[in-house]
Amino acid sequence: MREVAHLSMLELDTVIRFTVSITQTKEDKQKKHIFLQVPKNSKEGSKTRRGRWDFPSPYPMCLRIVRFQLDSGVFETIATSLPNMFTLEDIRELYHLRWGIDGVYPLDKSFRKAYRAGVTCACVRPGSVDCISGTHLAMKTYGRRIDSMAMKNPASMKAVFGENSKIHLKDRLTTRISIAAAIRDTLLFAKEYWEEKEYAEQTHTRKPCFDPKLEALRPIIKKEIPLKAYVLCTDDIFTTIRIAGECDVRLTLEHVTEGGLIADLLAKEG
Are residues 91 and 138 in the same domain? Predict the structure, then answer.
């Protein structure tokens, strides 16, 4: 989008305004409206599997643009409707809290192939880079809008031990010890945050400052959903089990490449 492209390549928090049009009249071009091409049979409210425009044309829009620098040195640009109560630093933190429901494109042909093959439900999850990568979504594979396809959201939250984080976050976390420490610290801090918040509510005292990152971990701390841990090696497996016990959270293990080497020990853990 040209409005974003014209912004300086530095950390910023600004608002851009533009107008979208589904026509290309002389007036549209003079006023520099952004042209959005839609199917010819895409009428307002029409039931079609293809994209449609259900708003007036031209249509004025407003977006908050936040740009910040990642630890890798790369600038990340976020378009959001979050109010100003969420600062640039808050959004920088939220960038690592990926919600599975926000990353699902229901019209992807893979879903169509799935339900035609008899797969009517799936658990969709974000990638495996950040130590705590985001939430999982249990959803139906048939539909056009993710909000009506969702069956349980969130269904679980992903944590990554060992290889992936070690490889991709090498500028911040270079060892298995540092990755385990980061996950342990986050869970313990979230537990303390919620204990303080509940105590403040019961005693009508001052609550801790709002922290969106720790708010997102509430379902894990309250054992409403499990922490799904991506683990490969035996040492990572036992580290994960140990941390789950220390932090008192529900746990499931994913991948477990070397699980066969310690199957009897895992069985004792239940």
Answer: no
For CA atoms 74, 80, 179, 233, give the dihedral sign. Answer: negative
196 lies in the same domain as 228:
yes
Q: What is the pLDDT of residues 173-226, one digit of tens each?
A: 678 888 899 899 999 999 999 999 999 989 999 888 877 778 889 999 999 999
Which of residues 95, 117, 139 is at a domain's end? 95
Please identify which residue in the block is written with the tokens 């933190």: 93
pLDDT tens, position by position, 115-145 = 999 999 999 887 666 788 788 889 999 999 9
String of DSSP letters for 149-197: HEEEEEEEEEEE-SHHHHHHTTTT--SHHHHHHHHHHHHHHHHHHHHHH
Rounded to whole angstroms, how far apart are CA atoms 163 and 244? 19
- My answer on whether 126 and 19 are in the same domain is no
Instruction: Tell whether the torsion through CA atoms of 168, 169, 173 and 174 is positive or negative.
Output: positive
Top-confidence residue, 235 or 38: 235
Same domain, 103 and 71: no
Residue 117 CB contacts under 8 Å (≥ 6 apart), including other chains: none
The answer to whether 269 touches 237, Cβ cutoff 8 Å, is no
CA distance 35 to 32: 9
CA 45 distance to own-chain centroid: 30
Q: Roughly what angle, to the nearest 10 degrees, separates helices 234-247 and 176-203?
A: 10
Rg, C-alpha atoms of the chain: 23
